[in-house]
């Protein structure tokens, strides 16, 4: 499904046709691929599917202003901090007191 949404944004006829066919076969839905091509936002998608499409399209459109390396960096940093945040929240970690005052107090004069 993501392949069809991205291919639609990129106007790639080959990918729309081939991945659309695979989507029809795998989903058993004769219309789903065409709807995703035309406007996935108009389809009755789950919130999970809509979020996946929105993210995939956002990355696709970002390629106009971000390099592939930029996009990879963004994805990796976001992925790492999603992991790190979940671990910290699950373990109920609390920051050291020093973190609260860092860069808030006047710098000592030299």
SSE layout:
Blueprint: H1 2-10, H2 13-27, H3 32-39, H4 47-62, H5 68-90, H6 97-101
3D structure, described in words:
By secondary structure, the protein is mainly α. The chain has two domains: about 1-65, AhpD-like (Up-down Bundle); about 65-105. The protein is about 70% helix and about 0% strand. The chain is built from six helices and no strands. It has helices at about 1-10, 15-25, 30-40, 45-60, 70-90, 95-100. The chain is elongated and about 70 Å long. The relative contact order is 0.09.
Give a quick summary of the entry.
By secondary structure, the chain is an all-alpha fold. It has helices at 2-10, 13-27, 32-39, 47-62, 68-90, 97-101.
Descriptive keywords:
single chain, 110 residues, AhpD-like, 2 domains
Helical segment count:
6
* Coarse morphology: elongated
Number of structural units classed as domains: 2
Summarize the helix and strand pattern as letters: HHHHHH
**From the coordinates shown, what is the CATH architecture of the largest domain?**
Up-down Bundle
Tell me how many strands there are. 0
CATH class wording of the largest domain: Mainly Alpha
Given the helix and strand composition, which structural class is it?
A: mainly alpha
CATH topology of the largest domain: AhpD-like
Largest pleated sheet:
none
